[in-house]
Amino acid sequence: MRRVFVLGPALWALGWLGGCARSLQVPATLPEPMSEKVLAARKLQQPLSQHLCQAAVYPTADARWPLSRVATISGRGPTFLEALEALCREADGLKAQAVVDLSYRRLPNGWSPSHELRGTAVRFQGHAPPPPRFAEIHPPPPPPRSGHEPPPGGLP
Fold first, then answer.
1. pTM higher than 0.85, yes or no?
2. Residue 155 to residues 73, 81, 96, 151: CA-CA distances in angstroms?
3. Could you report the per-residue pLDDT of 4-23, keeping only the tens digit for each?
4. How far is Cα 95 from Cα 74, in angstroms, rounded to an integer?
5. By the 8 A CB rule, do 59 and 132 touch?
């Protein structure tokens, strides 16, 4: 008699769990990656070609500035200014007042150019120095070519 009382609830629980497992539906299609334009349109974000960020950008930080470092952030884009805007918007997302100590890399990404900027998001503890104009920040010059390299594309 005891076996029936123990076996009955166990079978009921097993049937209930099996029914729940069968009722879950697997999505028919897997999510696909979205392009930057589609993602911006869905989230109602403005494109990176528009300068909207509020954080100041300083290529280098002075050791005398009263600041506290928040996080290391990066921004990527098809042009240098769009990568700089992405970096600045990352700082806005962290509620940082500025980005300092920029480092620049040009990443080979297939056939399309890709620029990457890294910097440190900071908050000032007092008076902030005036930032340079956003459009006046430029990438560093490319490294000089060595003299023994052949000219590209068969040029003389």
1. no
2. 41, 31, 49, 6
3. 556 667 666 666 666 555 55
4. 15
5. yes
